[in-house]
Amino acid sequence: MTTPPEISKANILAILKYILVFEGEGFEPGEMVTDRGMPYYSYNNEVLNFVQDLYDNNIIYSFDWPAWEKEAENLYNDPEALASADLDTLRKLLTVHVRKDRFSEGHLADVIRDGHVLDILRGLKGLVGFRS
Question: Whole-angstrom Cα distance, residue 79 to residue 46?
Answer without folding.
Answer: 25
